[in-house]
Amino acid sequence: MKTNPNKLWILVFALGWLFDFLFWKMKPGVNFAIFTTACLVVAFYLLLSDGLRPNRTSLILLPLFGFFAAVTFIRAEPMTTFLAYTFTLLMMTLLAVSYLGGRWYLYTLADYLGKSLLLVGSMIGRPITFMTAIRKEQAETGIQPSKRNIWPVVRGIVIALPIIAIFASLLASADVVFGQRLEDLINWFNIENLPELIFRFIYIVIIGYALAGVILHASTESKDEKLASPLIPPFLGYVEATIVLGSVVALFAAFVIVQFQYFFGGTANINVEGYTYAEYARRGFGELVTVAFFALLMLLSLSAITKRETETQRRVFSGLGVALVAFLLVMLFSAFKRLGLYEEAYGFSRLRTYTHVFLVWIGLLLIVTMALEILRKEHMFTFAMLVASFGFAVSLPILNVDAFIVNQNIQREIHAEANDSTNLDTQYFLDLSDDAVPALVSAYQTPSLPDSIRERVGASLACIKYTREQDTQKAAWQSFHFATLNADNALASIKKDIKGYQITSTDYPVMVTTPDGEEFSCSTYYYYD
């Protein structure tokens, strides 16, 4: 890049323009994946052309980047897409800070903090220092930057403009479509659009400048020659730490022993305590997860700041840590059971599904924490936490949260109807994303589905179809989304089947009437957790 800095600037500003082309007044869709992929391609091209090859370990991040980037236009459920955007950017950040060194898996929290700050600093100042260094090197070697006379270019433009205007007017008269495009282009340069054009030009320059800083950072600051030392060296005495840790372990042990029946008593326990399902599951679940989180944080903090000078001290501390994690696993299992009872009573929602998956991964993290404590590799905890985060973020798109909710709640309703108890909340389906539509259609087309449930599912689909028909704006290709395409195809497949469902009121709340004459509301108006 030093030999040809113009190539760097041309490409990064082209990426800035690409961002404007893909995102200006466009809905999220395939545009994010295209832009981030283009950024990686340009970065690799510039770095490889300078002979800077990536570390093999850094290349492991590329499949993860591809997975999360694809999820952004495959799934539409909000948490899934939020995590996909977040982890796509995280993969790009890790590539930028460990491109040459490849030791991202050994980073501690201090490394992540320090390297993130350095990357931000490079985005702000690196392009300036880069150009300053180029000029200094040219001055020292006696190479002068080429100075080209701009006036011939200006004269050429002045001569070409009237010629182009004449030919353009003739071509516009010859073809109506071309004439309309030409008129749109002229209107685009209207003085009324000047503030908008200036704003867009500014953020294109800012994006290109920041991307140049990231690429320059990867070329010089990603060697990982030395990892950060602990932020706080061990200072707490062994006796003090074991008293704290031992006291908490003793408390948890007493809690587990005394409340063992309370943990696993299920429905009978609710009756004994006088709780409803909601009070039993929600209250106890939140408290137990909070305890588990802060207890794990306490253990990691003590492990980092406690001085252990002898082998006996290390063994005792590790034993107490393992005992603490074991009791935390029991508590999380109890929380998992409480959540299952709540879902059995009221069905699945997004929040309950997130929590269900989260508990599995935090449980695995606790098991790994226990193993690291035994093996005395506590420095690997940050990597374990990163893997658990990846696992959670990967699990949601694979599970397909909204489709999972539809399938689970319908199956639960089938079981409830067999026991003369029906309470399928079809209104909640209306709050779900396009990911839920194919699952609803599949359920509606299932021959074995009881008629009473099919009627309510059909009403939901009629409401969804009506709502989608109100949006007449055609999305540009930049906003293409597989979830929308799949939903459109699924609804088209049952267009004739749901003709019997009529929208009888278009005022709020919108009402749909089933073939049997029952009315369902197409509006949701309450909080659902």
Give the SSE layout.
Elements: H1 5-23, H2 30-49, H3 56-59, H4 61-71, H5 78-98, H6 109-141, H7 151-174, H8 176-188, H9 194-220, H10 238-258, H11 260-264, H12 266-273, H13 277-305, H14 311-346, H15 350-375, H16 381-399, H17 401-418, H18 426-429, H19 436-444, H20 451-470, H21 482-493, E1 502-505, E2 511-513, E3 519-521
Antiparallel strand pairs: 1-2, 2-3
Helix pairs in contact: 1-2, 1-9, 2-9, 4-5, 5-9, 5-16, 6-9, 7-8, 10-14, 13-14, 14-15, 15-16, 17-19, 19-20, 19-21
Main beta sheet: 3 strands, antiparallel
Given the C-alpha coordinates, what overall shape results?
A: flat
Secondary-structure element sequence?
HHHHHHHHHHHHHHHHHHHHHEEE
C-alpha end-to-end distance: 53 Å
Radius of gyration in whole Å, from Cα?
A: 30 Å
Mean pLDDT, as a whole number? 84
Unreliable segments of 5+ consecutive residues: none
Strand percentage lies at: under 5%
Number of strands: 3
Task: Specify the number of helices.
Answer: 21
Please give the share of residues in helix.
Answer: over 70%
Query: Given the helix and strand composition, which structural class is it?
Result: mainly alpha
How many structurally independent domains? 3
Strand order of the largest sheet: 1-2-3
